[in-house]
C-alpha cells in the first residue's frame, strides 16, 4: 500500500487554526458566488426589468436540483477520498475521481437533452406566469445547454486538503461573470440572454481550470488520465450512500421552491414572485458562512474519523455550532434593521419593493438557527453515515416543509406564507440538533 505523503495539514495543524483556514477560504469562495448572484440580479433588474429578475427566480429550483447532483458527487466523493487519505490509500482516491467525473458527464448530458425537449412544460411546472414566460424561456435554454460545465469539482479538491486551488476554482469563474454581466446586458444590449451567456462563459472557465487540476497539474495528489474516467460499481455505491442525502436536500429545496413559486404566484402574483427572487438571493448571501463551515469541516471530520481522533472531532463540532448560532442571530438582526435600504438598492420605489421589504423582515429570522443543519449534514457525511441524513432530510421535507407550505397556501395570506417559511427553518434546525446530539451520545463524547 502506498505510504501517506508527509506534511498533510489535516493531521498536523491544530483544530482552531485548520478551521480558520479551511472555513474562511470556503466561506469567501461561496460568498463571492452569492455576491455574483446578487449583482447578477441587480444588473438584470436595472437593465431589463423586475419581471426578468423574477424569471431567473422561477428557474432557480431547477438549478438547485442540478446543483444537488454535483453536491452528491462532491460530498460523497469527497468523504470517500478524505477517509482514504486518512488511511493512506491514494490509489483508491484516483478511482473515486474518475467515477465522479463519469457520472457527472452522463447525467448532465441526459438532463440537457430532456430539458430542451420539454422546456415549456418544465417552466409551467416551475410556476412561471404569463408575464415571466418570455424571459424564463430565453434564460432557461442557455442554462440547460451549459449544465455540463456547471461544476468545478471543488469538493474533491477540498477533500484532498487543497483549499487554495478550491478557492481559486470558485473565485475565477465568478470574477469572469461579474465582468461579463454588465458588458453583455448594458453595452451589448442582450438583456436576460446576456446574463445567461455571462454565466455560461464563467462556467466554461471553471471547467477548464478543473481539467488543468485533475489532468495536468503535477502537485495534484489524485491526478488522473482520461482513460481513468470510468464507472466503478463499488465506488459508486459508496459515493451515493454518502452523497444521496445531499441530493435529497437539494431535491427537497427544489420541490419546496417549486411549490413555493406556485403558492406565491397564486397568492401574490408576478409581483410577489419577483420580490421573492430578490429576497432569496439576499438570504443566500447572508447564509454563506453556514455553507463555508459545512464544506470546511467535512474533510477535517472525515480525516479525523478515519484516523480515530475523536477529540479533534469533538472540538471541531463545538467550535462550528457556537459560531453558526452567534452569526445567524447577528445576521438576522442586521437584515431586519436594514431591509428597506437593502431592497431599495434593487428597486427604490415600486410595489415589488414594498412586498420584498416585508418578506425580508420576516424571512431573515430563519437565519438564526440556519447553520445547525449544515453542520449535522457535514458530520454524518464525513463519517459515512448517509442513511441517517437521508432520514433527517425526508422528515424535514415530508413532515415539515411541504405540509406547512400547503397550509400557508390555503390561508391565501402572503405575510402568513413568509412566516411559514421562517418557522420551517426553525423546526428543521431543531430536528437537526436532535440528530447531532444523538450521534454524539452514541460516540460517547460531549453534547452541545
From TrEMBL:
GO terms for molecular function: antiporter activity; xenobiotic transmembrane transporter activity. Signal peptide: none annotated. It is found in: Cell membrane. The chain crosses the membrane at residues 20-38, 50-75, 96-119, 139-156, 168-188, 194-215, 319-343, 355-376, 388-410, 416-437. Keywords: Cell membrane, Membrane, Transmembrane, Transmembrane helix, Transport. The keyword Membrane applies. One of its GO terms (cellular component) is plasma membrane. Pfam families: MatE. It is a multi-pass membrane protein. InterPro entries: MATE_fam (IPR002528), MATE_MepA_subfamily (IPR051327), MdtK-like (IPR048279). The keyword Cell membrane applies. PANTHER family: MULTIDRUG EXPORT PROTEIN MEPA, SPORULATION PROTEIN YKVU. This is MATE family efflux transporter.
